[in-house]
Amino acid sequence: MRLGLRLAFGFLLITGLAAFFVMRVFMAEVKPSVREVMEDIMVDTANLLAETAATDLAAMSKGGTLVGSEFARHVRDYANREVDAQIWGLHKRKLDFRVYVTDTTGRVVFDSAPEPAVGQDYSRWRDVAKALKGEYGARATREVETDASSSVMYVAAPVLGQGRLLGVLTVAKPMSTVAPFVERAERKIASSGALLLGLSLLVGVAVTLWTVHSVRQLRRYAQQVGDPLADAGAVLRPPDLPGELGELADAMDRMRLRLEGRERLEQDVRALTHELKSPLAAIQGASELLHDALPAPDRQRFAGQIGLQVDRLRDLVDRLLALSHLESQRGPGQRAPVDLAALSDEVLAQHAATLAQRALRVQWLQRGPATVQGDAQQLALAFSNVLVNACQHAPSGSALTLGLHADAQQAHWSLRDEGPGVPDFALPQLGHKFFSTPNPVDGRKGSGLGLAIVRQVLALHGGHWQITPAQPGLRVTLVLPLRSTSH
User: N or C: which terminus of the chain has fewer CB atoms within 10 Å of its end residue's CB?
Assistant: First the structure.
């Protein structure tokens, strides 16, 4: 199972279980809470009415009733009152307290019910029996045994007069009268719970997507690091992530740099050893021959060969040091506006002697304004190496064609020579250290470090190159962003 599905499933499971148990607790507590509040109100009501009924009950003759008494008239007037109360959106249109009074024996002496139970013995009911004993009396009884909604709550209070028990007054209220309030509360809890669950799920999905996206960035970065076919000149940067994931990305990047440094060193040492064999062998052979008695022209030729190989070694070392310095950087050394046209003129002036020696002429195919943000010295080094490479492969007396233009986002600098070009199989290898093709002038192969420097400069500036065969020759196009890229 993929990471995103695992995270989403785990979050949904935890949220669903939590919501289920929380909702279950809330829903289970609604009805008991309403009953508790209603019972509390009925206790106050029963005690208040008990005080009201005390005078009439004390004056009642033995075996008599409260029918026709002042208390009975007040209760009857209460029952006949018209009411239309809107309680939080619910209408109450009738008064539904039932009030009955018993004497000290439990005989009903007053009942406000439509079918009064006057004269009946209620001493067996819990509310009356408890109150007659001086205890708290209450009960809940179903009018229909099989119907829970027909339950009626009864709360009794003792009627006292001059310190003695006169009887019991009970207040009754059907639970069905508060059912709409309970149902509304349950609906609100259910809707609020569903909304909360939905918001939680949205947050969970967002967190899951963010986590998966961050992990995928780390995975993509790790794959780029471990890809043997990746562009060796590209500058890899860790994803910009917050918190612990960002620290992990930085740690991975530091580990990559250490591993790359060790691997690069091993590769460079092997390649450099191979490159050094040829000039060292030439120097050794020439020096051994110089120990013998040689004619002056041969001695001069061998001495010149030693000097030539020494220059080759010096050029190899200088370029390797320059490339190593570039590879240790994470971006351009300095950022400033660089006019590519003016920079091209400076590079051409530096190599004017070489161009004249080879009788190479430079012609501009297109010269438009193009200014980029970057390091002028690094860009000049890249232009110079491309120019030197073109000079080495261009036939004497041929033309080098320069082009420069910019679009909305990028500047394009190109140089084309009229040499033999490069075989198609070798194009992807250009720019790799110590890879080169034979020079058509003398047949010797270069170090390949010049184009490797070009690729590294482009990578530091967020650019890239395009190498395309021309008829005849080869065209190298350097593409640079007009705006600086963050590193």
Answer: N
